[in-house]
């Protein structure tokens, strides 16, 4: 069978503007080659910066920002699309090759109705008449399991959920009957229980329409469910290229092995302890607009241990962190800290209360002043809480930087000069600088690549052993819970649905929600998706 | 931080949540009315605080104290300021701006004609400049950083940099004095035919268009360029759509709010800020009327003009806000 898409020796460059230096060209992708037959799915996997999205967009002859395709060939049905020129490329985009973006919420135009956007490319390329395109859109909405397929297209993007938008985006890509679809992390922004539905819908739609696909993701377990072949990328180069089964079950490259094994961590659970550092009793909270977000929450965190709060977006887990920090005082209930009642509102708290509870944010990027050096960022709490200045302060900063395994060489760097993992480490050092007894970690690893995240988790565990600090660790990822928690609270719609020692919470019998949550986490094996869908079908027949 | 109210049941809440668009518009309307009242106090108080006195100006330096007191009593200036304010406000609310001190005619009648002239001029300046500005702004984005964009930018900068009286005199020199194509002065009077009026206002309209065009064009360009970096524009590009379609269909609707605002500001300027152009072209509009009244300290006229200018400003900005609110699909189509 002739190849639909054949990429030969692709080379992609961009111009970098490092602060304080002359601009220089950097190579993003080099020497990448692969073939894709009609009706097959190739998974591109790698960390951020591996060049996977850049390669995906090259299949549409598109370079994001200042990215330039400077070498190699991208053959679509044997013709090099890089040599087509502006109008030629425009004819291919949206008709033969379509793109599904990572964040459908941002990729849909907020001012236009969904249906209009879904059929737009089909109409503009003259592939179908309006009536035919509308009919096809309704058919696709149905195939993708969207509610009210007949009228779904009349809604605006803000009127539907994130999972529905992602499926609508897939419908938009499928509508002109393309030969190839590039899926760029289509489920990364979704909750696990939503992700599984979207994955199933995408897989079903690909099988139905016999279109070929490039599936880009950083999650090996996800790509294992939808792909026929996998290419592992690192720093713009191919690490390994083979069938799904070979990559998952017999990875050859060292790096692939690390990716496959990254999830299999399990921390030994600490002994149960009756004394608690933080005690949350019957706490409810509501936003200033009167919306109740937390209902009757009771939790406790033992000294020197970790409580993981698990839940999906909107479950209230970050709001609970805001209540503990005092940003949103509870409307009912109270919180005790080290045996003393904790002042509800942040602005009324004493300096010592502030010092004892610190916070690590999800986005280290936005939680640091970009115009301050690492020295200033870490030095600020040292001066504020302990009055340290001059040499004593520098010595302590150096000590903290050693603790987070970075070293004094980073003192005068700006956040922009640090990698994502390094930024999060600096944020940890800033929290540690206050010598806190409790650190609230709000999804500190969810924006990081798996191996980098693993390093951060290992660091947090080590710091706990050394300093006996307690953590409240907010996450949506069950694997992280296994890797770090001593006790667990599962949150759903503003309530704690299940809590206790990790071994108890994560073993059966489960309540319905925890069961759904645990079953939705993709596992690193071929055929997992089919198995889960099959059990679901059996259960729904049984009911 | 604002504390949550203790009582969660509020009867009005459901309605306002069900019709967020209507509620936002009503709020904006109420705000405008409050603002107009505040402005009326400032105008009345401000005009009162101006130095100079009508009676002295009217009768001259050698007037006897008795004659001045007579005139003051006749015009009612001797009464306390609050009494006069509320009397004036009561008149304003019924559309009566009182009587001109200078010629003892009804201010309302005089203004009706002058305002009509001003609106006539502003209307034609607006229907030419607004579509032209938005269109040129889109073309500038389409050819961003290329020759057409540069030409549009330089030309508009030049137009915005020249003072309006200078542009006016240049136009008069070229089109009336040297070639004789256009009419000068641009005086309109009652009984003039519509076509004559149009030809009379050609030059002032052209001047106004040149003055406001650049501002609106540059804002349109900036607002659309701002939107062009959004992910949904990339989506449109990856659908293989043409450049103009991407700008007109995908970018422009999301750039409406800032464009509407700058258009409203310029429309307001076309009505209330054209004193200089009216004087240059001897056009009998509101601006000239007010300037004349100030020079003879004819307070009722000054107050009426000030109040009407303020009302037009508030009305146009309110309309712009409401349109910008309506342009937001989240408010137009709640979940």
Q: Might you state the CATH topology name of one domain in chain A?
A: Rossmann fold
CATH class of one domain in chain A: Alpha Beta
What is the assembly state of the chains in this entry? heterodimer
- Please report the number of helical segments of chain A: 21
According to CATH, the homologous superfamily of one domain in chain B is: MetI-like
Biggest sheet descriptor of chain A: 6 strands, mixed
Which terms summarize this structure?
heterodimer, A: alpha/beta, Rossmann fold, 38% helix, B: mainly alpha, MetI-like fold, disordered N terminus
Protein architecture, described:
The complex is a heterodimer of chains A (543) and B (335). With 543 residues, chain A is α/β, with parallel strands linked by helices. Chain A has a domain of 234 residues: P-loop containing nucleotide triphosphate hydrolases (Rossmann fold). In chain A, the strands form four sheets. A six-stranded mixed sheet of chain A has the order 6-7-8-3-9-10, sandwiched between helices. A six-stranded mixed sheet of chain A has the order 16-17-18-13-19-20, sandwiched between helices. The longest helix of chain A is centred in the middle third of the chain and has 18 residues. Chain A is globular. Chain B is mostly helical. Chain B has a domain of 200 residues: MetI-like (MetI-like fold), CATH 1.10.3720. Chain B is built from 17 helices and no strands. The relative contact order of chain B is 0.13. At the A-B interface, α2 and α4 of A face α11 and α12 of B.
What is the topological layout?
The complex is a heterodimer of chains A (543) and B (335).
Chain A: E1 5-16, E2 24-36, E3 41-45, H1 52-58, E4 68-76, E5 79-80, H2 85-92, E6 97-100, H3 104-107, H4 114-124, H5 130-143, H6 149-152, H7 162-174, E7 180-184, H8 192-209, E8 212-217, H9 220-226, E9 229-234, E10 237-243, H10 244-249, H11 254-261, E11 276-286, E12 292-302, E13 306-310, H12 317-325, E14 332-337, E15 340-341, H13 351-356, E16 357-360, H14 374-386, H15 390-403, H16 420-433, E17 438-442, H17 450-467, E18 470-475, H18 478-484, E19 487-492, E20 495-501, H19 502-505, H20 512-520, H21 528-542
Parallel strand pairs in A: 3-8, 3-9, 6-7, 7-8, 13-18, 13-19, 16-17, 17-18
Antiparallel strand pairs in A: 1-2, 1-4, 4-5, 9-10, 11-12, 11-14, 14-15, 19-20
Helix pairs in contact in A: 4-5, 4-7, 7-8, 8-20, 14-15, 14-16, 15-16, 16-17
Chain B: H1 13-18, H2 20-49, H3 54-59, H4 65-75, H5 81-93, H6 107-142, H7 147-161, H8 164-178, H9 194-200, H10 202-228, H11 231-238, H12 243-251, H13 256-272, H14 275-281, H15 286-295, H16 299-326, H17 329-332
């Amino acid at each position: 069978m002739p190849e639909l898409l054949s990429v030969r020796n692709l080379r992609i460059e961009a111009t970098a503007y490092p602060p304080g230096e002359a601009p220089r060209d950097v190579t993003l992708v080099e020497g990448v080659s692969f073939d894709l037959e009609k009706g097959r799915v190739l998974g591109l996997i790698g960390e951020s910066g591996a060049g996977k999205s850049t390669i995906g967009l090259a299949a549409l002859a598109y370079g994001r920002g200042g990215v330039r395709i400077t070498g190699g060939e991208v053959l679509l049905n044997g013709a090099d699309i890089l040599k087509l020129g502006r109008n030629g490329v425009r004819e291919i985009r949206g008709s033969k090759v379509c793109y599904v973006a990572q964040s459908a919420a941002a990729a849909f135009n907020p001012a236009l109705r969904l249906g209009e956007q879904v059929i737009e490319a089909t109409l503009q390329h003259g592939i179908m008449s309006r009536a035919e395109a509308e009919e096809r859109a309704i058919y696709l909405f149905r195939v993708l399991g969207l509610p009210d397929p007949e009228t779904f297209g009349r809604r605006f993007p803000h009127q539907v959920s994130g999972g529905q938008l992602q499926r609508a985006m897939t419908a938009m890509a499928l509508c002109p009957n393309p030969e190839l679809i590039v899926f760029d992390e289509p489920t990364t922004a979704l909750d696990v229980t939503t992700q599984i539905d979207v994955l199933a819908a995408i897989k079903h739609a690909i099988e139905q329409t016999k279109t070929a696909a490039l599936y880009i993701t950083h999650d090996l377990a996800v790509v294992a469910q939808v792909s026929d072949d996998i290419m592992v990328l690192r720093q713009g180069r191919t690490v390994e290229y083979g069938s799904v089964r070979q990559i998952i079950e017999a990875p050859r490259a060292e790096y692939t092995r690390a990716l496959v094994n990254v999830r299999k961590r399990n921390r030994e659970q600490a002994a149960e302890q009756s004394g608690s550092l933080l005690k949350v009793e019957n706490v409810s909270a509501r936003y200033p607009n009167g919306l109740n977000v937390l209902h009757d929450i009771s939790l406790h965190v033992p000294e020197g241990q970790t409580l993981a709060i698990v839940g999906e977006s909107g479950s209230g887990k970050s709001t609970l962190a805001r209540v503990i920090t005092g940003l949103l005082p509870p409307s009912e209930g109270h919180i005790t800290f080290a045996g003393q009642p904790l002042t509800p509102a942040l602005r009324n708290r004493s300096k010592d209360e502030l010092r004892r509870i610190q916070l690590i944010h999800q986005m280290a990027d936005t939680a640091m002043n970009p115009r301050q050096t690492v020295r200033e960022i870490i030095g600020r709490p040292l001066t504020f809480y302990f009055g340290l200045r001059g040499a004593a302060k520098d010595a302590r900063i150096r000590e903290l930087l050693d603790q987070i395994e970075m070293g004094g060489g980073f003192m005068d760097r700006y956040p922009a000069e640090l990698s994502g993992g390094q930024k999060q480490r600096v944020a940890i050092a800033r929290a540690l600088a206050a010598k806190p007894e409790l650190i609230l970690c709000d999804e500190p690893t969810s924006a990081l690549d798996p191996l980098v995240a693993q390093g951060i988790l290992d660091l947090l565990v080590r710091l706990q052993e050394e300093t006996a600090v307690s953590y409240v660790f907010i996450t949506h990822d069950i694997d992280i819970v296994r890797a770090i928690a001593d006790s667990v609270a599962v949150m759903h719609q503003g309530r704690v649905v299940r809590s206790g020692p990790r071994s108890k919470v994560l073993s059966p019998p489960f309540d319905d929600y925890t069961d759904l949550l645990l079953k939705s986490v993709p596992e690193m094996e071929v055929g997992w998706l089919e198995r889960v869908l099959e059990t679901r079908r059996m259960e729904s027949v049984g009911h | 931080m604002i504390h949550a109210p203790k009582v969660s049941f509020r009867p009005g809440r459901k309605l306002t949540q069900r019709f967020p668009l209507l509620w936002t518009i009503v709020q904006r309307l109420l705000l405008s009315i409050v603002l107009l009242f505040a402005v009326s106090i400032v105008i009345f108080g401000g005009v009162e605080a101006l130095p100079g006195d009508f009676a002295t100006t009217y009768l001259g330096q050698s007037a006897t104290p008795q004659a001045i007191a007579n005139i003051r009593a006749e015009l009612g200036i001797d009464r306390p300021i609050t009494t006069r304010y509320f009397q004036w406000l009561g008149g304003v609310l019924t559309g009566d701006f009182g009587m001109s001190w200078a010629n003892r005619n009804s201010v309302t009648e005089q203004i009706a004609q002058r305002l009509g002239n001003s609106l006539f001029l502003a209307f034609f300046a607006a229907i030419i400049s607004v579509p032209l500005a938005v269109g040129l702004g889109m073309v500038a984005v389409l050819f961003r950083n290329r020759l057409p964009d540069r030409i549009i930018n330089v030309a508009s900068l030049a137009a915005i940099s020249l003072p309006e009286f200078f542009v006016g005199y240049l136009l008069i020199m070229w089109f009336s004095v040297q070639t004789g194509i256009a009419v000068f002065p641009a005086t309109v009077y009652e009984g003039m035919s519509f076509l004559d009026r149009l030809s009379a206002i050609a030059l002032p309209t052209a001047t106004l268009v040149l003055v406001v065009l650049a501002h609106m064009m540059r804002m349109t360009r900036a607002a659309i360029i701002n939107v062009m970096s959004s992910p949904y524009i990339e989506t449109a590009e990856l659908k293989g759509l043409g450049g103009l379609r991407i700008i007109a269909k995908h970018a422009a609707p999301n750039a409406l709010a800032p464009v509407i605002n700058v258009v409203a500001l310029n429309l307001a300027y076309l009505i209330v800020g054209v004193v200089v152009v009216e004087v240059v072209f001897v056009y009998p509009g509101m601006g000239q009327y007010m300037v004349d009244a100030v020079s003879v300290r004819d307070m009722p006229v000054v107050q009426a003009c000030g109040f009407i200018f303020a009302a037009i400003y508030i009305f146009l900005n309110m309309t712009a806000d409401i349109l910008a609110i309506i342009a937001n699909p989240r408010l137009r189509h709640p979940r």
